[in-house]
Specification:
The protein has 330 residues and is an alpha/beta fold. It has two domains: 2-174 and 219-244, Rossmann fold (3-Layer(aba) Sandwich), CATH 3.40.50; 190-214 and 247-288 and 304-326, UDP-galactose 4-epimerase, domain 1, CATH 3.90.25.10. The protein is 40% helix and 18% strand. The strands form four sheets. Strands 5-4-1-6-7-8-12 form a seven-stranded parallel beta sheet, sandwiched between helices. A three-stranded mixed beta sheet has the order 9-11-13. Strand 2 (25-26) and strand 3 (29-30) form a beta hairpin.
């Protein structure tokens, strides 16, 4: 079993790689090779042979070279994130849309080849006006370039799956929280930073009102989504291969309350309110909550609440310790 991961140097890509190496199999078959690809060379872990490559999917020559070895499962994670895609229109379309098209065209050029193709989409494919809770049959009407690019990718995956070019699924990931590491250019980055930084005694900026509600899942859940999508019987999806995934709906205020339960008021005092109209305008058009009946029926699972999301971060990234609490939370 040969696995290709694009965007493998990113946070989810690294965690997915670690999970694949730890388990050693996909769909009951041993993983015999890993090809990890990103614009920055990923780190190839010990345990499974493979290659770590630097490639830009905006380059038309990149995709054919990656697909030539005919990987059995492709996790297509590579993307320009929401804030950057909005700020740099050509770059967003080059990577998020044309990079995906390039991979699909390279697959189609291989005769008798039909890989499992797991595409990371986003809840940004939905835009206002929206119901308070979004059902599975909600039309996609994105209000950002990032969401538009992901919605186009979803249609492509469904169409090429119908035609037998690939066996694909598009996963509308909730906003991933708490993202470890440094902040990125995503407009949603503050949802993680207002928890991540205070847990280690650092200040964080909150650019939106505490009443802002959103849909979340942890990195741990995101990796679980990807692995499940690689192994399940996709014929159950029918012609619509795009799936809204389970998550936790919570307001910023509820995030902060869960942080205080985990680490005390010393942590929440480190959150500085500093409104940003641009960020607030972007997230105001995003979904707040979902009723993902299809995904739950197909076995996808996420955390039950924000407290569990914070516990997962403490366990996975902080070694089970809360540094700010140890430094004197009251």
């Amino acid at each position: 079993m040969h696995i290709l991961i694009t965007g493998a140097a990113g946070m989810i890509g690294r965690k997915l790689t670690e999970a694949l190496v730890a388990r050693g199999t996909v769909r009951g078959q041993a993983i015999t090779a890993l090809t990890l690809v990103d614009v920055v060379p990923p780190v190839l872990p010990d345990g499974i042979p493979g290659a770590a490559l630097s490639a830009d999917l905006a380059d038309p020559a990149a995709a054919p070279a990656l697909i030539e070895s005919r990987p059995d499962v492709i996790f297509h994670l590579a993307a320009i994130v929401s804030g950057e895609a909005e700020a740099d229109l050509p770059k967003g379309y080059a990577v998020n849309l044309h990079g995906t098209i390039g991979l699909c065209e390279a697959i189609a050029a291989q005769e008798g080849y039909c890989p499992r193709f797991v595409f990371t989409s986003s809840i940004a494919v939905f835009g206002a006006p929206l119901p308070d809770v979004i059902p599975d049959d909600q039309p996609t009407r994105p209000l950002t370039s990032y969401g538009t690019q992901k919605a186009m990718g979803e249609l492509l995956i469904s169409d090429l799956s119908r035609r037998g070019v690939l066996d694909g699924i598009a996963l509308r990931l909730p906003t991933i929280c708490i993202r470890p590491g440094k902040p990125n250019a995503a407009a949603s980055g503050f949802y993680s930073s207002i928890l991540r930084e205070p847990l280690t005694g650092q200040e964080a900026v909150l650019p939106v009102p505490e009443t802002t509600r959103h849909w979340f899942a942890s990195p741990r859940a995101a990796v679980g989504f990807l692995l499940h999508a690689a192994e399940m019987d996709l014929s159950q999806l029918g012609p619509d291969r795009a799936l809204s995934l389970p998550g936790v709906d919570a307001t910023v205020g509820e995030e902060i309350a869960a942080l205080e339960r985990a680490a005390g008021p010393a942590a929440t005092r480190l959150i500085r309110r500093e409104g940003d109209e641009t960020v607030a305008g972007i997230v105001a058009g995003w979904p707040q909550a979902f009723d993902p009946v299809r995904a739950r029926a197909l076995g996808f699972e996420a955390e039950p609440d924000m407290d569990a999301i914070i516990r997962a971060h403490i366990e996975d990234e902080l070694g089970g310790r809360i540094p700010v609490a140890e430094d004197g939370a009251d």
